Amino acid sequence: MKKTILTVLSLSLCLLSACQVVNADQPVPHTPTIQFVDPTPTATQTLVPANTSTPTLPPSPEPSLMPTLTSPASGQVTLMAVGDIMLGRTIGEIILSEGLTAPFQFTAETLSSADITVGNLECPITDGGIAEEKTYAFRAPLPAGKSIALAGFDVVSLANNHTLDYGAPGLEDTLDTLSTSQVAFVGAGLDASQAYAPVYREINGLRLAFLAFADIPPTDYDYTLWEAGERKPGIAWAHEARVRDSVSQAKENADLVIVLVHNGYEIAQRVSDGQQRIAHLAIDSGASLVIGSHPHVLQRLETYNGGLIAYSMGNFVFDNFLFPPNYSAILSVVLTKDGVESYEMIDVIVQLNGVPQIMEYDLEN
């Protein structure tokens, strides 16, 4: 079983005007709690002070993939979640020049300490395909799949506005690379059946179901064209009926349902009506946890109807951003059969080159 590492509530969220946890209007039978702990790192954890300059990264070893070890059934699971992971551009160059572990060298130990770790993969992993005619078309080199696995990720969402940046061939390469690296994917597929299918994981006696949906606001590109069809590769779209039915059906086969949603407005710290509507619908339909992405900045947490909503986890690995997008966090959640038992935010700063670091605090000075 991975060792749980707890740190302080995110300073990043405190910088946001609407970052307080919002309680539901009506009492609920189960309310998760925030735990505050000593932020002093353990003897086996070295935290590097964060800075906004681009460091010189030493060559990284390329360890072999090891299976995740879990303890006997305990009825409790620690889940860690992050926001957007974009492994192209500068990060892709770092992977090729410095080694597979370089993008996550300051965070992999923490991510791997959880029983299960999830994030949003904000790019295809491919060396083929043709770039779509859009403002930003990202792609990561093929070794990036193993980088994600070595960092401790178990499940990634592909329901976003970059998964098909290099068309269906790029998506096919991504699915193959993730499968080879033993990283599960959700929210995209070679057809609608695969794109909307849940991913199930049984850990410590709990059966978890993961679903992912996209609902990208209109821009200069029509992302509704990317929705998967009967014989069409694509992403899962957050139609309300689809969300309701998918969550309800997954709950019949799992103790807990976790929903990953890619929606909201970029660089907006305020939660949109659409974000809240979909998140509330997912919880009302049986989900215990909703994790959002797409705005590139942290947004508020909310407890609602016995569930927890993180509307946006912001960036995690993403180059060329400054404040506020480069202030981020890792969400650490303790799950039981009753749902979210407790949660906290581990503060992260993303350097200009896209590499995240856990922020170290000395609360006595």
Structural descriptors:
alpha/beta, globular, single chain, Purple Acid Phosphatase, chain A, domain 2
Structure description:
With 365 residues, the chain is α/β, with parallel strands linked by helices. It has a single domain, classed as Purple Acid Phosphatase, chain A, domain 2 (4-Layer Sandwich). It is 19% helix and 25% strand. It contains 8 helices and 17 strands. A hairpin with a 2-residue loop joins β15 and β16 (339-350). α7 (240-252) packs parallel to α8. It is globular and about 45 Å long.
Shape category: globular
Structure classification? alpha/beta
Strand elements, count: 17
Architecture per CATH nomenclature, i.e. the level-2 architecture: 4-Layer Sandwich
Succession of helices and strands: HEEHHEHEHEEHEEEHEHEEEEEEE
CATH superfamily descriptor: Metallo-dependent phosphatases
Radius of gyration: 19 Å
Q: What composes the largest sheet?
A: 9 strands, mixed
Poorly predicted sequence stretches spanning 5 or more consecutive residues: 1-31, 33-71
Q: How is the quaternary structure best described?
A: single chain
What proportion of the residues is helical, as a percent range? 10-25%
Total separate domains: 1
CATH class label: Alpha Beta
Number of helices: 8
CATH topology: Purple Acid Phosphatase, chain A, domain 2
Mean pLDDT: 85
- From the N-terminal CA to the C-terminal CA, the straight-line distance is 35 Å
List the helices and strands and how they pair.
Layout: H1 11-15, E1 33-34, E2 77-85, H2 89-98, H3 108-112, E3 116-121, H4 144-150, E4 155-157, H5 167-180, E5 184-186, E6 188-189, H6 192-195, E7 199-203, E8 206-215, E9 234-235, H7 240-252, E10 256-263, H8 273-284, E11 289-293, E12 301-304, E13 307-310, E14 315-317, E15 327-336, E16 339-350, E17 356-358
Helix pairs in contact: 7-8
